[in-house]
Amino acid sequence: MSLELEIGKRDVWIFGSRKGQFYDDNSKYLFQYILKYKPEIYPVWVTKNPAVFEKLNYENLPVALAGTPRSDAIMSLAKCAFINIIQLDVDKTKLKKETQVVQLWHGTPMKFNDISQFKERYDLVSLASTLFLNEQALGPHHLFDFQVTGYPRNDFLLNDDLPSFVDKQTLEKLRNKKVISFLPTYNEEKDETKSGDKRGKSYAIWQGLDLTKLNQILEQNNAIFVIKLHPLQSPSGCEVQQALEHCNNVLIIDPLDPFADVYQYLKYTDVMITDYSSVLFDYLLLNKPVIFSCFDLDTFILKRNLRFDYNQITPGKKTSNWSEVLEQIQHIFEYGGDGFDKQRQEVCKTFNFYQDSQSCERIYQLAKKLPIDSSKNL
């Protein structure tokens, strides 16, 4: 069947993630939603990664490998393009001026950034909070149409009906277990290598962690420890992490795996440990305990320009070393919580205007009303 017959009268919407190399984040969840619920749209995942293409093609999902004739044809027909970071998420070289670009972004920022730095046009930018409409804007309003919609990936956290690609083996590991997830952000000063390589080897992250104590807590509470480092951190590189890789009750997610989507695990997480990652704001929707491993807080605040007072937006126990983290984990399991429920709800209201599972639908309604042509250019 020809592409024209396959598409019919439907609008073509294309999706991509992280320079075309990954299948994850907001683009993925909106793609799945459109595919399942909007038959009037012809959604296609555009990737530069042959492994992503092969897997999605095997799953019988609409996918195109950038640079191929089929991909070029789809790009030429696309009415909307949905990205997480920059236009390289799809095939930027074949992106038409007429194609509307929807910037889904990849998280409510804790640190200062400005999307105009990419010098790209976005016809719609989705936000989770009204805070970022004014004083905390991600860029100039005359260049971007900011809309508070919520993030598609959070629909998955709140709605069991949305498709999931968690493999059966992983689900089996999590089944009937208490799940602790460690999700730190990239800390360039903290994550240095002996060779000076910019990609951190995570030497400092594990400093002071008592593996014996960790294993005792996991075994006593029938728990599993899920680790997902930032993509700029190596998945190995120090003795402690190498030891963790061989623990039966530890699950390490390779941050360079194109299908390693942390939200597949976050949904089942009972306790999250993080330092300065914006994944916090999404996890607050579940109102579950958070332990803050802000071991270098004073130094980090001095070197990084935070948008907010850290202590005001982090409802949970602040810890200064791994010993305190482990004590708090045990406390949470022993007492069934951490006593920060109300504080989490208040912070969640600030950073998540919508607390439902309708973000995909809101973005869909806005995107289908976008004009055919675009005059916004940087």
From TrEMBL:
Organism in which the protein naturally occurs: Aliiglaciecola lipolytica E3
Single annotated GO MF: CDP-glycerol glycerophosphotransferase activity
Membrane topology type: Peripheral membrane protein
Family: Belongs to the CDP-glycerol glycerophosphotransferase family.
Keyword Membrane appears in the UniProt entry: yes
GO cellular component term, pick one: plasma membrane
Keywords: Cell membrane, Membrane, Teichoic acid biosynthesis, Transferase
Lineage: Bacteria, Pseudomonadati, Pseudomonadota, Gammaproteobacteria, Alteromonadales
Keyword Cytoplasm in record: no
Gene3D superfamilies referenced in this protein's UniProt entry, alphabetically: 3.40.50.11820, 3.40.50.12580
GO biological process: teichoic acid biosynthetic process
SUPFAM superfamilies, sorted: UDP-Glycosyltransferase/glycogen phosphorylase (SSF53756)
Pfam families linked: Glyphos_transf (PF04464)
EC number(s) reported in the record: 2.7.8.12
InterPro entries: Glycerophosphate_synth, TagF_C, TagF_N, Teichoic_Acid_Biosynth
Compartments, as annotated in UniProt: Cell membrane
Protein name according to UniProt: CDP-glycerol glycerophosphotransferase
